Amino acid sequence: MTATPLYHVWDYSNTDRKFWEEHLEAWLPERIFDAHTHVQEPQHRIISMTDAMRKQYWVNEVFEPISAADAQRCYEQVFPDRSFSCLAFGVPSLEFDVEAGNKQLASDADERGWKSLAVTLPSMSAAELSEELDRPSVVGAKPYYALISHDPTSRDKHLEASIFDFLPHHQLELLNTRQAWVTLHVPRAGRLCDPKNIREVQTIREKYPDIALVIAHLGRCYTLEHAKEALPQLANDHGLYFDTSAVLNPAVLRFALETVEPERILYGTDNPIFYMRGRRSWSGATYKNYTNYPFHFNQQREAPEIEANYTLYMYEALKAFKSGCDDLALDRLSIERMFSKNAESLIARANCKKELRSSCSGDLPSNGSCQP
């Protein structure tokens, strides 16, 4: 069987099929729920990507927006013979039309039986956010620090912002009332380890306990050094969740599984970015990406015979996840929870409140009961 087009510059090859068959096919549950994937119609881009922007950050080079139809096609290809669904959200960037993207994705997700998060601007009023949450398929919000304002020279102009600068309290209050899902990409160069991030996450959990707060990318703990510093500080908060998106490091995934119970971990990909082909290496608190495409960032290529065996980053991440589960002898129920049941439980809670709200006239009282 020959290679078939997948996404961007990547094909799905015999190498990938072999990797799937050898490492993943017998292990992955029958139901897969991706709790972190980006879906955005390409026509919603309002600021063109330039070569200078591509050189700023490796993600700018590997990322191109993917439509719902193409996302579905790709997932059917990489997860053969699996029942698949996802929680999708657009690109959290002011280079895209956020309003149009939210509206389109809510409809596309509803059509496919997916769920979605609304990308939220910090300037949104409670009324505007409420309208977003009322859309079909929407179960919560996706804030991001780059949505504070746009800077064409850097995506990290607001990297050191407070969480409350891009997820303000008036929005948190509404999200709490709705028992909504919030996927939080923590800011700051120190990642989740930063004491300010720890304190602000704890504040959200204390003041807004009904939000289903999901920390993206295990708190951006892509290295074991970061994971060991950050995760134990939040391990005892049994209402706080973490997704595994963009985490390739088997040592990090094993540590997360040891530190945070499986009931609080959600499988995620960060696709379409993780359709990239290659591998990652780690040294201390840093990592390096390798791929077989001549991107600007890919200056230290490996030997052709090594590159020939590269598979998709998302497959490498799944193998790393499997390694951690095997090392800890996790049972099948725990694995199924992380790959679907945990996410479905949070969605069911948000949908229950949504249905209750729609059956009532006016706003629900704080206890969630429905009053005529």
Summarize the model shown.
GO terms for molecular function: hydrolase activity. With 372 residues, the protein is α/β, with parallel strands linked by helices.
Describe the structure.
The protein has helices spanning about 15-25, 50-55, 60, 70-80, 100-110, 125-135, 165, 170-175, 195-205, 215-220, 225-235, 250-260, 305, 315-325, 330-360; strands at about 5, 10, 30-40, 85-90, 115-120, 140, 180-185, 210-215, 240-245, 265, 275-285, 285-290, 310. It has one domain (about 5-360): TIM Barrel (Alpha-Beta Barrel). Helix content is about 40%, strand content about 15%.
Q: Rg from C-alpha positions?
A: 20 Å
CATH superfamily: Metal-dependent hydrolases
Which percent range describes the beta-strand content?
Answer: 15-25%
Could you state the oligomeric state of the chains shown?
A: single chain
Which blocks of ≥5 consecutive residues have pLDDT under 50?
A: 362-372
Number of domains: 1
Q: How can the largest sheet be summarized?
A: 8 strands, parallel
Q: N-to-C SSE series? A: EEHEHHHEHEHEHHEHEHHEHEEEHEHH
CATH fold-level name: TIM Barrel
Helix content: 40-55%
Mean pLDDT: 95
Strand order of the largest sheet: 3-4-5-6-7-8-9-10
Span between termini? 62 Å
Number of strands: 13
Strand-pairing-aware structural class? alpha/beta
What is the CATH class designation? Answer: Alpha Beta
Shape: globular
Number of helices: 15
CATH architecture: Alpha-Beta Barrel
InterPro entries: Amidohydro-rel, Metal_Hydrolase
Organism: Adhaeretor mobilis
Protein name: Amidohydrolase
Domain Amidohydrolase-related: 106-295
